[in-house]
Structure formats: structure tokens, C-alpha cells
Amino acid sequence: MSVQNVPLDRPRAEQLAVLRAQFAAAQVARGPVLPFGVPALDDRLAGHGLDGAGLHEIAAATASLNDDAAATLFAAGIAARFADQPGFTILWALTRFDLYAPGLEQVGLGPEKVLYAQGRNDADVLAMAEDALRDDAIACVIAEVKAADQTATRRLQLAASDGKTPMLLYRRHRSLGRCPLDQPSAAMTRWRIGCISSARLPYSGVGRPRWSVELVRQRGGEPLSLEVDACDATGRIALPAAAPDRAIAQVGAASQAA
Amino acid sequence: MTAACPVALDLGLHPGMAAAHARALVPDLDVRDAELEADHAFLERLALHAVAHWTPTACVSGVDGLWLDLSGTTHLFGGEARFCRRLLRFLQRIGFNATIAVAGTPGAAHALARYGGDALIILPPGKETKAIAGLPLAALRLAPDALTASARFGLERVRDLLPIPRGPLAKRLGLSTVTRLDQARGLAAEPIVPVIPFEAPRAERRLLEPIGTAEAIGQVIGDLIEGLAGELRTRGLGVRAAILSCHRVDGDTQRIAIGTATATRDVKHLTRMFAMRIERIDPGMGIEAMTLAAPRVEDLRPETIGAILAGDARSPDIALLVDQLTARAGESGLFRMAPRESDVPERAVGRVEPLAVPTGWPRWARPVRLLRRPELLANVVALLPDHPPRRFSWRGKGYRIVAGDGPERVHGEWWRSAREMWAVRDYFRVEAQGGERFWLFRRGDGVEAPTGDLSWYMHGLFG
């Protein structure tokens, strides 16, 4: 239908230029965009990265604790990269504290960077997140909730764009087999993270963890899904290196040939 | 020598003697430097104690004494004599020999306490001149050159000064000598400048009409905070805790309190913190007076901004946000995690206050979420002593392990409990067939029986 409409009210070149200028101004007014450093991911994101003044939702692929840990690390890695300057602090608001701080330090969120706020219920957590978003002293806010309706996400999105602070809403699973991302939300992007097998090493050790990252929905872009290597010590994810087994096989073949 | 105790006096030592002379008299004398500042600081403390316990007007007198204004206070302690005996006992208990003189003028009391000769002299009113007449001139707190001049004229006792006409006396010994003499005799006034213990800043508003609405209360709170902030600014202080008292018409008092993470006198911030609690005030029939006091304050001085002028970015200040969030989450709801000195994983972390700057942990592989307490695994198949399990079941589900790292050995802390004397945990990081990564441990090293019973536990989850 849109294809039929195009010849009738086609915008003129100057109108387009004005719109483009407005769009660019709006982009400048927004916070900085944080690219992942993975071209396959960044190129398909609407702003070539995560909006630094928007709400992003992250959930585990299943209710299992492993996927939960993977999604937590994914959020922590993003927060660590938002807070990479010395002296920056992120706020982690939650109701039940079971994080292990040494584990977070290993994706770049050292103990001097994280301020934890433990609320009594989800409403407390959301209110604290909103307070922190409107304060410009915080580099990023992570809130762990079980339920947040559309009003709540809309409030967070508005607070994030007002305060120019990124907001990561970590949605925990409430019941088995029901994804927390199936409710409507005002988020800019919605992510679903799961654990998958890591690449086998030539010796009996655990390789770099690997995740399935699924961008369920994004504003102004298409959903996508890919497999990535987990966050390193600075919170950066990476694309899996291509077939390390082959190089070893070649070495083996060479040594056999020799 | 600046001071001598009774034992030293018995040995023939006296203040003013040269140290070499004293050493000649008592060969094994232990001589130490006088600490005049420390003495003065102690006297100040004693004066503050006196203000808190005995009389509102007290101050340090000279280098070795205190003045207490006892007018109207000794009846609380059973009369002057009883009070003085009590004071002597108190000073004896904390290790001092004291002499006390009670007189109508500070000058006479000063002279009698030092040169009177008795431990306790209580002078009836109006007898000052007679009492000090026999004392040496040094008792009058004269200037040193006045003392030398009077020695030259052959004036030794206070009574020698009394018959001399005031004009020639002032000409020879200085006007200050006459003043001192008059002060001691009670002819000239000499007020005691009392030491004042620290006074907490406060602001108060009495209202013409009782108020009851949130807007009106908010307005008064705003005025009070303005007033308090002005006082704090002049004194160079910042609030750490503030209490707002609302006095109601029916005599009841409503109190709300706030605490701040760092010292502040930011009007906007304080107003917002009180505004969040305004609904806790029950105005009842109306509030007729409100008081804002800051019982806990700290120094808040201007700080240099050299680094900022030089172009360095300033790290954002989260103290205001911390206050705001503390109002929502409560005192214990806001914290950071800091390392503790322990290798046992669950003891290696502890909560610290939100403005602390903790350091990190050693970079051993650690899970991101830790189970509240380790959970026992069932059906474990593992090679001893140092291989990860091949398979196990946990929470009713079986896992087959494809890769594992370890062991990382953690020894029990024998200084905590006898049960941990030999205890050992061997930690493994394993990956199951579906991609799940776990943190497991085995109790015992697999060789020595006392180290553990070789049971396996799940302790954490890697992403």
C-alpha cells in the first residue's frame, strides 16, 4: 500500500533535507551511542549501537539459572562499557541480592564502580531507578524486576531520555516457560540471552563462554539473532573466532606429514 | 623545672630550679620536656567538663588553673564546702593534687589558690583585701617588669602596696598593677569569659497562625532550611544529620529526621529530602512552631578547583543521589561490595557504606551469581583426586560434563572454628553438554580423610 502512495505525496528534496536536519539534531540531543564493537551486530542496530539515553530490556532465554547468569553478565558488560571512565558509577537496583561481586569485576565492573540499591519490592526498585536516571551523576542504571507494565517502562524511557542516562531493565522470569519479554514495553531494544556450548579446546578446559544473543525487538530496526563470545575483562563481546579446530588439525597433519 | 610533685618537693626540688641543679641533688632524676600545649588542652577539656557538670561559667585561668563561677550553683551540690571537697576528690581520682580557693573576686581566688597554702580556702564575702594582704606580690598576676620594679622598691607583700597613693603607684609600677590590685580587692569588675561548648546550629520559626496543610509546612521548612544554611555557611559547616521538630497546638511534638552521606548545606537538596518525608508529619489541630536543628555537622570548606581549571574532568558526585535513594531504600538498602580477607568465596565479600571506594579481588574465575548456600549434588561420577565430575544431577536434572577447569583448592579457616581445621574445598568450573557452566566444589582433597567426606556441591553459576 505504501508503494502505491509514494507517487501521490512524494516529499520534496528540501522537505527531506529539513527532516534529515531535524533527525540529526534529535540524534545530537540524545546521549552518546555505544557500539558493541561487533560489526555484525552494530550494523543492524538502528543507531549503530545502543542508545545512551534510552531504555533497554534484557531477559534470559529460559528460566534456568545459567541463562540468568549469562543475561546478567551481558547487562553488566554493557554497563561496564558505559562506565569506562574512572570515577563513574553505575546503580544496580534489585530486590533480592544474590550477585557475586568478584564475578562482576571480571567483566569490567569493579567494586568501586557499582552502587547497589536493594528495595523491598519492584515498585521501590523502579522508583529508585527513575531517581537515579534523572540525576546526572550516574553513568548507567540496571534494575532487576519481575514485573514492569507498559506505564512503568514508559516512565523509565522518559526519565532515561530526560537525564541522558542509559537504562538497562533486567527482567527476571516469573514462571517457567513464559518469556518476560512477551508483554508490551516502551523499550528501545529488547534482548534475550542464553548460554550455548563454548568452543572445545585442544585440552580439557572450559573455553571462552559463548552466548546466543537475540534482539527480539528494536525501535526503527529489524530483530536479529547471533552467537557471540561472552564479555571479556572490559565487558566487550566478540564474534566467535572461525574454526580454531582447523588450524590445530592442519598442525597435526603437518606433523604427521613430517 | 616547671613543675614538681610533693615527693619532689620533699627531695628539695622546686619549680624554677635549673635542671642541672636538680640532677646534682638527685642523681637518678628522670627529666622530661614540659608539654605546655598538652597541659593547656587538658585544662580546656576540664573546663568543658566543668561547663557540662558544675556551672555554666568556667574558663581556664593562667597555665595551671581553672575559674569556676559558683554563684547560684553550689546549692545543687550541698553548699560550697561540700562541693569543693567533692571537686578535690574528683581531681584526686583522675590524678591531680589541687588547691581550691573560693572568693568574691577572681583575682583574690587566683591569689589564694596559688599562694594561700591550704588545699581548700573558703573566704567569707568582703574579706578579700584582708586575706590577700599577706601574700607575695606575684599572687596579683603582675607583669614581669612590674615585679622587678617592685622588688627594687622593696615592696614584697600585697599589704605594702595598700598604703601607697594610687597616682605614684601607677607611675612607678604601671597602671596595670593598680588595675590588678583593684580587681583582686573587688573595686574593679573582672568578668570571666566562659568557654562555650559546641553549639549545634539551629533555626526556629514561631508562626502567627497554626498551620496544617502540606504546602504551608513545606513553605516553613523551606524558610528554616534557608536560615540554617546561612548559619552553616558563616560557620563553615555542613549537615550530616538534621531533625525537624513541629510543635503542635495541643502540646505534642512531631519529629522527622534526615541523614546525609556527606556534609552538605545545599538548600535545594535538603528541601527535597524533607519534602519526601513531609507526609509523615501529623499536624493534628495545627502546628504553631517549627525548629530545625543539626545535631551532627562536619566541616565543609571551599575546596580548590585547580585540577578542573587545568582541564581535568571532574568525576561526578553521587553523594546527593545516595541521600535521595537512602530515603527510599533505608539505611541498609544502599551499599557497595568490598573485599574481605578470606579465601572462602562466601566470606570474601562484604557490604560497605555507599561512598566507600573498595579495591578489587584476585582474578580467579568467579561466577556472577552465587547460590545462597551450596546445594548437594546427587549421582556424581568423578575420578579422584583432581578431576571434575563426569556427570551429576542437580535439582532433579542430570548433566553430562564435557569440559572442566580445576581444582582450585580453598583451605578451611582454622582460626574460625575447630571444624575447619583440616577442611578443604576443591573448586571446579565445568561446562555441561547443553552449554551450562557451573561452579562446583568437592569437600576433601580426595587423599586425606579428615579434609572432607568427598561430597559434591553446586555453589555458583557462570554465564
Key attributes of the depicted protein:
A: 258 residues, alpha/beta, Rossmann fold, eight-stranded mixed β-sheet, two-stranded antiparallel sheet, 8 helices, B: 463 residues, alpha+beta, Dna Ligase, domain 1, 4 domains, four-stranded antiparallel β-sheet, 14 helices
Please, could you describe this protein's structure?
The complex is a heterodimer of chains A (258) and B (463). The model of chain A is unreliable at 246-258 (pLDDT under 50). Chain A is built from eight helices and ten strands. Helices cover 34% and strands 21% of the residues of chain A. In chain A, helix 6 (122-134) runs parallel beside helix 7. In chain A, the strands form two sheets. Chain A has an eight-stranded mixed β-sheet, with helices on both faces. A two-stranded antiparallel ribbon of chain A has the order 1-2. By secondary structure, chain B is of the alpha+beta class. Chain B folds into four domains: 1-34, no CATH class; 36-140 and 178-185, no CATH class; 202-299, DNA polymerase, Y-family, little finger domain (Dna Ligase, domain 1, 2-Layer Sandwich); 369-462, no CATH class.
